[in-house]
Design goal:
- By secondary structure, the chain is mainly α.
- The protein has one domain: Orthogonal Bundle (434 Repressor (Amino-terminal Domain)).
- Helices cover 57% and strands 0% of the residues.
- The chain has five helices and no strands.
- Helix 2 crosses helix 3.
Length: 90
């Protein structure tokens, strides 16, 4: 297993943890509730595909989690201060 595959698996495991903490019992329930193709989300959660920056932010907004936590496992998981989806930092 190369480093990229390992990172995808680790991020996927954190996505699963956050999804369950948000009350979604299954990946398909989460993806359906948020209009995300189930196969796409399953591939991310299972570490079969890397998550790009746009989707990282989308998942973090939907799950109300910190991007820093999702990528590193450090700090608090929950983060309710994400900027609105269409905002641009000055």
């Amino acid at each position: 297993m190369n480093m990229e595959d390992n990172i995808a698996k680790i991020v996927g495991a954190r996505l699963r943890q956050a999804r369950r903490a948000s009350g979604f019992r299954s990946a398909s329930a989460f993806s359906s509730a948020n209009n995300i193709p189930t196969t796409t989300y399953n591939n991310h959660e299972n570490g079969f595909r890397e998550v790009n920056a746009t989707l990282i932010l989308k998942y973090c907004r939907l799950l109300e989690i910190s991007p820093h936590w999702l990528l590193t496992g450090e700090g608090e998981m929950l983060w309710r201060q994400l900027p609105p989806e269409n905002s641009v930092a000055a």
